[in-house]
Amino acid sequence: MQTKKYLWVHIPILTTMAALTIHSTQAVESHSYSTTSGQYPVPVSNLAKPSDIVIQSKNSQFSQNYPRQYQSWYKTSESTDVVPALEEDPRLIVLWGGYGFSKEYNKPRGHFYTVTDVRNILRTGAPMTPTEGPMPMACWTCKGPDVPRLIAEWGEKDFFSGKWAKAGNQIVNSVGCADCHDTTSKDFEEGKPALRIARPHVLRALDVIGKNFNQMDTTDKRTAICANCHVEYYFDKNGVNNVVFPWFNGLSVDDMEKFYDNIQFSDWTHSLSKAPMLKAQHPDFETWSMGIHGKNGVSCVDCHMPKVQGADGKVYTDHNVGNPFNNFQNTCANCHTQKKETLQNIVESRKQNIKEVMLKLEDQLVHAHFEAKAAWDAGATKEEMQPALTAIRHAQWRWDYAAATHGGYMHAPDVILKVLGTGLDRVATARADLATILAEHHVKTPVPIPDISTANAAWKAMGIDIQKARAEKAKFLKEIVPEWNKEAISKGLIDTPPPAH
């Protein structure tokens, strides 16, 4: 029997509300945690309670007093293209086998569509009641200012408890003003930024890495605001599926992997290999912090939300978050002397180099998953398979970390290439182990790979009834979402529904 250690855990919470800390006991398995910070995920009893924080979540109410900022934010609606990544690269359907991402994954588009896209994606299923569906409430966490509003009203425990559909009629404003600003403050009224993080789990994560939000200067606050969403995170199954950032050992791919391994966390079990898998989210803050821009104090805002001059000569912050090259003179040209085309060619070259290595790793992982399945089918034991499955887990975590990082080829191309290189090393170990197991069980090699040349072929190979999933989603969008919109309008949360597509 393994013993437990009972530790006093110091957990700073709600630092924007009060300079308070809570000390509590938390039972921690002796083998489960090893963190350099000495801190651990907050227990359910210490999640933030309902508070008096006021979040004005209705984005349209700021259009008159802040027309330049609002109109530039509204331009994110021009990012209309839905690019289906699975159809561009069907290997992903295999890599995410058994997980919702294998049904649909689209490349990101403008902030204006955050609510629309999470409603429409097949991953959230087709819940016809508030208690149905595959996904928890945490799937709303980055989608808009109604999230911190509800956390303030309900508290974290009640917010994160239950299914995603529970808040479908409440979370209706896409990422906007109150996600980043204290819109009720005197500073905001006077036209100052009044930057605020109102999601308690983000404040806790920043505290873990020694970055108290209230003590930051404006430049650091601007970047920390982006860490509301553009980070790696997981849903704490020992809690109430509340969001936690795995930063307790550090921000690198190895640091976070160590944390996940030590708490024996997995997002899902792969349908072919049975490996306990990790799904990277979008570790942009982490990658940026390790890259040349982060190390030199170039913030997210400098490149993605620069100061611009309007037709009336007034300077304001452009809220049309997008590619810095689209606003070159106000972004890159502030530091770089090269021509736009020169820098674009450099970035494109780095992107292609990373893509080539990434595809090689994908191919190796596809083979590893099918080889593991063949080993299981031949009678391999858990003891035999464990080293290979761990290597698959670590290899795909590195691939996913690199693939899910928005703009890694710009933020830190050297870091991304190293991550992919170590991923290739680990998948080579996995396949070598599997080759030995397959030989011992008299399995003929090479293990055949079914046709996955198209998304439809890959869905078939993985046993996914994509037409059924799409039909169920269509019914949900037709019958349930209009009711959500009607309720939200009646409550005054929005004036018009989020776009349907």
Automatic annotation (TrEMBL):
Origin species: Actinobacillus delphinicola
Binding-site positions, heme c 1: C139, C142, K143
Top-level taxonomic group: Bacteria
Function field: Catalyzes the reduction of nitrite to ammonia, consuming six electrons in the process. Has very low activity toward hydroxylamine. Has even lower activity toward sulfite. Sulfite reductase activity is maximal at neutral pH.
Molecular function terms from GO: calcium ion binding; heme binding; iron ion binding; nitrite reductase (cytochrome, ammonia-forming) activity
Main location, first listed in the record: periplasm
Binding site for heme c 3: H111, C226, C229, H230
Taxonomic lineage: Bacteria, Pseudomonadati, Pseudomonadota, Gammaproteobacteria, Pasteurellales
UniProt-recorded name of the protein: Cytochrome c-552
